[in-house]
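Weekly modeling sync, notes
Attendees: AB, CL, MP (scribe)

Item 1: holo prediction request
CL wants a bound-state model with FE2/S2 (inorganic) cluster before deciding which constructs to order. AB pointed out that an apo prediction alone won't tell us much about the pocket. Agreed to run with the ligand included and paste results into these notes for async review.

Input as submitted:
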Amino acid sequence: MKRRELIGGSLALATLLLTGQPAQAKDISLGKAADIKVGAARVFTIAGSRILVFRQSTSRYSGFIASCPHDATNLLASHVRSARVNCPKDKSVFNASTGRRISGPTAKSLQVVPLKVTSGFLIATLAPAATTAPTPTPSNSASGEEITKSARVPVGGGIKVNSKRGEIMVVQPTAGSFAAFSTYCNHGGCAVSRATASAIICTCHGSEFSTSNGSVIQGPATQGLMRYDIFERDGAIFLR
Ligand code: FES
């Protein structure tokens, strides 16, 4: 069986900051507020948490955890219509401005994520559990988790894929050399958006990270991307 070891061999370790102080809520930039049209919604994935943002008016935004409180169905931007959030599975309906339940089997409302606009950027205030960078959880399985077909990863670029450990950027700087990193940008918590042959780019504030090892090429980020251990087998990329 063909099994090719990929760039690097071990998981990069997330930085642990042991301050002895209680964990604090953290402000996370979601990018330019103007990028969301009035009456439209967008979902952001931040360190494994999904945040649904609805723009009520030129100056008012509302944010919620993008999960139906009844059955944890993932809520998408397309589920927001006429200022209402419609769960496609159980037909629960919520007010997209307040998150309050309007109808459906659940008695609960959407979980609110506080938002504000600062210098044109949309800022979400997340509870500590939602802002912690994903923790590597190596699998003992010899098979690993298949996260994408090799052919889907462009040479000289990368793609974002979903895995059991959250969203991952898989890159192929040169033909046959793959690497994978967390999409979590430690500068402000945005998800990196795209990759070239040499750099993974966070468009929130312009940070760039090496496609070879995830280290910072250009700030304002000061910490590199967390790297995942992957391997290729039978035309697919697996998370070890
Ligand atoms: S969040 Fe600021 S550069 Fe990524």
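Recorded for review: The chain has two domains: 26-131, 133-239.
Action items: CL to compare against the apo run; MP to circulate these notes.
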